[in-house]
Write a structure and sequence with these properties.
10 strands; 10 helices; 2 domains; Rossmann fold
């Protein structure tokens, strides 16, 4: 679908997020991303004479026997990674009550992750989805590419309104053949995606990033309110001043979140949870540090 944002306004939005994100990556996340994502492995580079303090496990016994003195193997980290930003652009992202919409939060997260990857010379791919795949940008490097990723996150207008995480994952598994780091940015207000999520977890380093708004988790007492499902257009009226209704609503929401989290635990997939209006640096930093400790 055509971009409805005026070019001048789009450039201003891109510039604002570019400045904010690049500062965030430089100041707050410097080193965290690199430490958390160390590359695909270690590649042999050369041997050199053993020095006091070297790990004896790195001694190359064949070379040492040939020259009658100890030599150690040196390895170089295979740094290059492919990072896929899979962003949910379904209509539920148009909800938000704390200074930003969920889609704005997804844009901020996607931009921050993309800049972190580019800063570490990794390739970045963008995968936009609703109830269908909306846009796929193959993995590339460089500042020009990350600017295109940012423009798409800000201004792309999807054709679909619903959510199909299952279809998105099936297509992602098909088009992304090489093992990659896949961040799924979504509110996960969907069901029936368990099987493709397991397949994606087995093929990729899969990281769910769950975005939400406080008012999705708990309702204030506002009297009779008309609720609208942004994805289906369905409406209904409810009396939010009723404690029984609010308790029932929150129970349903908590159970859905518990099912989602049980699935993540079952496939050993640790999520990052972020709410609208919150600082995104803190949850990203905590996740990167936990990942580094595990590594």
């Amino acid at each position: 679908m055509a971009n409805a944002t005026p070019p001048t306004e789009l450039l201003k939005k891109v510039r604002r997020i570019q400045i904010r994100t690049s500062h965030r990556v430089s100041d707050a996340l410097a080193g965290q991303y690199h430490s958390a994502f160390r590359g695909r492995g270690m590649q042999f580079e050369e041997v050199r004479p053993y020095l006091p303090g070297d790990d004896v496990r790195s001694i190359d016994w064949n070379v040492s026997a040939r020259f009658n003195e100890p030599f150690v193997k040196l390895f170089r980290e295979e740094r290059e990674l492919t990072v896929v930003i899979a962003a949910d652009l379904s209509a539920s992202g148009g909800f938000g009550t704390h200074t930003q919409l969920k889609r704005d939060l997804i844009t901020e997260l996607g931009a921050t992750l993309a800049y972190s990857a580019i800063r570490n010379n990794d390739k970045v791919s963008l995968f936009l989805f609703t109830d269908r795949v909306e846009r796929f940008l193959p993995p590339r490097k460089g500042p020009r590419h990350v600017l295109r990723v940012l423009r798409e996150l800000i201004a792309f207008e999807p054709q679909g309104r619903g959510t199909s995480i299952a279809h998105a994952l099936e297509e992602l598994n098909r088009v992304v053949r090489r093992r990659s780091v896949v961040f799924i940015l979504s509110d996960f207000l969907d069901h029936g995606y368990e099987a493709p999520l397991r397949v994606a977890r087995s093929r990729h380093d899969l990281i769910p990033v769950v975005v939400s708004d406080r008012r999705e988790l708990e309702l204030p007492a506002m009297g009779v309110v008309e609720f609208v499902d942004p994805e289906t257009g369905g409406t209904f009226f409810a009396d939010t001043s009723s404690p029984r209704f609010r308790d029932r609503y929150e129970s349903i929401v908590r159970e859905a979140a518990a099912r989602r989290d049980r699935l993540f635990r079952a496939i050993r997939c640790e999520p990052i949870e972020v709410r609208t209006g919150d600082d995104i640096v803190a949850p990203l930093t905590r996740y990167f540090r936990r990942r580094e400790r595990r590594a």
